[in-house]
Amino acid sequence: MIAKKIEDAFNAQINAEIYSSYLYLSMSGALEKMNLPGFASWMRVQAQEEMTHAMKFYDHIIERDGTVALAAIDGPPMKWKGVKAVIAETLEHEQKVTGLINDLMDLSMTENDHAGRMFLQWFVTEQVEEEATAMEILGKLEIAGDSAGGLYLLDKEMAGRVFTPPAAAE
Ligand code: FEO
Fold this sequence. Notes:
- The chain is mainly alpha-helical and 170 residues long.
- The protein has one domain (4-158): Ferritin (Up-down Bundle), CATH 1.20.1260.10.
- The protein has six helices and no strands.
- Helix 1 runs antiparallel to helix 2, helix 1 runs antiparallel to helix 3 and helix 3 runs antiparallel to helix 4 (114-144).
- The longest helix is centred in the C-terminal third of the chain and has 31 residues, at 114-144.
- It is elongated.
- The two termini are 25 Å apart.
- The mean pLDDT is 96.
- MU-OXO-diiron binds at residues 17, 20, 50, 53, 94, 97, 130.
């Protein structure tokens, strides 16, 4: 059984994770328009990954005999100044999500929800990785600077990311 307070907070996180997926999918479309298919593909995988995060919360609520309550998803932005602005916003967004996960962890601790705390551990680790990855890409973009050749090579590198379903990823 899951306490109502935790259930509500986890349902809100389903919404936040699906919004993340929406945001990254929108970014992917914008990157296609910038003629950066590698970045676009990377961002599409990122969007897929966010849906698996949402489903983890979904499954956790179901497993604990809770009620899944899905709310409307806000529309994400559609335009960015360039690839650097996209990745900078990705980092900013992930930092925000880290804050949300930390809040959930705090709640599970004050509510003595041990199952929730164990479940959230995976997300705490995941957020460290999410922020580190965005920072690494931002760093590479800094190095590439205004060099078209550098950006071309980086785009090729970004194309290499493949979606790994969560079961295989854990
Ligand atoms: Fe689901 Fe990128 O955090």
